[in-house]
Amino acid sequence: MSLESRMEGFRPEKYLTDVIPHSCGSPSCPRRWQLRSSWSYRLEPESTMLEKIRKALTIRSVTVREMLAEALGMFVLMVFGLSTVAQVVLGNGNYGQQLSINLGFGIGVTLGIHASGGISGAHLNAAITLTHCILGNLPWRKLPAYVIGQCLGSFVASATVFAMYYDALYDYTQGNFTVTGPNATASIFSTYPAPYMSVLGGFFSEFVATAMLLLGILVIHDEKNNEALKGTQALLTGLLVVGIGLGMGMNTGYALNPSRDLPPRIFTAIAGWGIEVFTAGHYWWWVPLTAPLVGSLFGVLIYKIFVDFHNKPVLESGNEKGVMESSTL
């Protein structure tokens, strides 16, 4: 029997389970079948488990995605920030100083912005979100989602740092978690005023520091003015926070952010510090909530009065550079 007759009726697909049709698709093509290499399976996203998981978990609601982005960005910010505070306090100054805390929060801000900026605009601050809503840059209906995401990320970050440093906390305090005194540790998580500060003085300190934060953000992002180079905004915002900590952090710990202060305070009340976290410092807890809200609005107002209202937008590529998106003020 000739080779041709033996091959007649031969169908490689019956014997080769690892074959694919040739791209031409012609039945008479001699290269109709070719062996599929083992790695070609991995190149088909539909056949991967990761792709199936991605499709199952994909969230279509834009608002929910923004909320999750804010939660992740805030989590990153707070883990870096709170862990540096914990290391400085629990290490008795042997593992860092005040500058370490400033740098930790600055790095956290930079990475938090990169984590969420493309999705939610990386507010990472309830005061900034409220200011966006008041200025009409963000719909009011999105305010709860943004704030919930920020508070969720901040709360989980507090629990994460608490778990990571629990043994050190226990060793440092002998199991007695206190808000005030020589071995106080509540300040690892939330801000408290210095002993010499009055409530009014502390409010003014937080007010000015938050106003400077918003002024700095506007300077960095204002396309009608001398904006920062594209891609450097997150780094410069982190450096801005470092600068505020270096110059305005002694009096009150520069909370600047209700989403940064209240969730960790609630966590410490639950985790063993008790209700004193709300009564200490002449009931200080409400100041980091309200002063940043007022300071944020004042900072934007000052920038607009001195610069923005008089600076006409420049047409570029058919669009006005001065048109603000929801992620800018």
TrEMBL record:
Gene3D superfamilies: Glycerol uptake facilitator protein (1.20.1080.10). It is found in: Membrane. GO terms for molecular function: glycerol channel activity; urea transmembrane transporter activity; water channel activity. Keywords: Membrane, Transmembrane, Transmembrane helix, Transport. SUPFAM superfamilies: Aquaporin-like. InterPro entries: Aquaporin-like, MIP, MIP/Aquaporin. The keyword Transcription regulation does not apply. It is a multi-pass membrane protein. The chain crosses the membrane at residues 67-89, 101-122, 143-166, 199-220, 232-256, 283-303. One of its GO terms (cellular component) is basolateral plasma membrane. It catalyses: glycerol(in) = glycerol(out); H2O(in) = H2O(out). Belongs to the MIP/aquaporin (TC 1.A.8) family. NCBIfam families: MIP (TIGR00861). PANTHER family: AQUAPORIN OR AQUAGLYCEROPORIN RELATED, AQUAPORIN-7. This is Aquaporin-7.
